[in-house]
Design goal:
- It contains 10 helices and 13 strands.
- With 306 residues, it is α/β, with parallel strands linked by helices.
- It has 2 domains: 235 residues, Aldolase class I (TIM Barrel); 56 residues, Alpha-Beta Plaits.
- The mean pLDDT is 93.
Length: 306
């Protein structure tokens, strides 16, 4: 990868309490090599800008229809239909929409722009910091490396969340500037990983085992999606804890499946990939109690609708 002058960012979220220690500002990078069926940030997957249609805000004024130069918007839907194959994300419809129902997701930002934005919150960073998330921030690792270096110059605590499916040199370049690494391990079984994320987990496992031998503070995060990455919750959690223990990593977070991102798929004109009931917290707690390790601290992260 080249040394990018800009990165594609789709959101900067302030005052987050669930993305690392303390009060944090989270920078969301666009683009991800995985396409998990349960992804709650589907707008993060595509490494290019996309048109979001917040249909609940639409007032059916139809101002966007004649303005679209590619005739990608019609009144044949409820309330509008967008032909994603025709749309080139020019943004003209966004400019004329009086209710802000249309929005371009993803904008190019320079290092200076990102630093300026996140340092607006530095008063809170005494007990917090900045988290880089996505998508996959290390998809744009040259930019991320320089951004992390700048943040450390300002004395900012840094967290990076990664799916691990990136070149080894990405970790070699950024490891020295990360205070905490959230490592998303979607599934231990390679075939199921391919089936539900679109890629093998071999590179992910290889990078994790490499990092486990380095001076990097790691918390492994694993979604619990019954019937998908966990065929049987109890045996799956037992196997996962044993694997984490074997790496010498002492913290694991289990993230119960939720449906909070479902509406985003409709905003993108996409179908939501799965339909199932979230696992009960009690079931997860019982599995952890039965399979727990003295050396691995396991936390169940209860999802919050934000």
């Amino acid at each position: 990868m080249n040394r990018e002058e800009y990165a594609l960012i789709f959101d900067i979220q302030r005052f987050s309490l669930g993305d690392g220690p303390g009060i944090r500002t989270v920078v969301f990078f666009k683009g991800c090599p995985l396409h998990c069926l349960w992804c709650h940030n589907p707008e993060s997957q595509n490494p290019s800008p996309e048109l979001l249609f917040r249909y609940m805000r639409c007032i059916s004024c139809m101002d966007c229809i004649p303005k679209c130069p590619r005739d990608a918007i019609t009144d044949l839907g409820e309330p509008l239909a967008i032909d994603r194959g025709k749309c080139d994300v020019c943004g003209i419809c966004v400019e004329v929409c009086p209710s802000h129902a249309l929005e371009i997701c993803g904008r190019k930002m320079s290092i200076e722009e990102v630093i300026r934005e996140v340092l607006r919150d530095r008063v809170f960073y005494r007990y917090g910091g900045v988290t880089l998330s996505g998508g996959e921030p290390l998809y744009q690792y040259s930019f991320v490396s320089r951004l992390l270096r700048e943040l450390k110059k300002h004395g900012v605590h840094t967290v990076v969340e990664t799916c691990g499916h990136v070149p080894r040199e990405a970790f070699e370049e950024v490891a020295g500037y990360i205070d905490l690494l959230y490592y998303d391990l979607k599934a231990l079984d390679d075939e199921r990983h391919k089936m539900f994320t679109g890629v093998s987990n071999k590179l992910i496992i290889s990078n994790l085992e490499y990092l486990a031998g380095k001076d990097v503070d790691i918390i492994i995060r694993t979604p619990v999606v019954p019937g998908y990455n966990f065929i049987d919750i109890e045996s799956g959690i037992c196997r996962l804890i044993e694997y984490v223990d074997s790496l010498g990593i002492d913290r694991l977070e289990l993230l119960p499946y939720h449906r909070f991102g479902e509406e985003k798929y409709r905003m993108l004109g996409r179908e939501y990939g799965i339909s199932l009931q979230p696992p009960s917290i009690k079931t997860l707690e019982e599995a952890v109690d039965k399979c727990g390790s003295k050396r691995v601290s396991v936390d169940i992260i209860i999802p919050l609708l934000t």
